[in-house]
Amino acid sequence: MAISRDKKNTLVADMSELLAASKITVFAKYDGLSVADVQKLRAEAREAGVVIKVIKNRLVRVALSDVDTYKNTDTSTLTGQLLYAISAEDEVAPAKILNAFAKTNPALVVAGGFSGEGLLLSADEVNALASLPSKSQLIGEVIAMLLSPVNDITNALSGNLHALLDGVEAKATS
Q: For the domain bounded by 5-132, which CATH number is listed?
């Protein structure tokens, strides 16, 4: 069934709005996924603040040309049945969501993405993003690294204090 021109214009406007606000957009081939699988993917993505859109590639090209950041972006890789995962909050979440879902559903294949700066990302680059630790994990690692000198100094001073007290105690008992 054909979509009316008004519906197409609405879809393009919605997609343009999502793309303009996005930090990253990842697209994947979903041939062979059932409707239930796509709904499950959407639910998982929604929990992570990621929007999943299934929209014709031609309409996505029009939406990309409407956004200044993506006007000169190469869209030749937008072929076949694609779904788009978009996040305005996290640069890595769409890649992580699709990569994790693809592990249990081999019919989903990450095909590439667009960075928030308008760069086309290959599937390998998107998969590399998906392997990065989460933002909270990175913050925890940085804090641990910053605190390690403090912990080392505290441990060294504590050790010297114990040795001094042991020496004083040994002197007092002899």
A: 3.30.70.1730
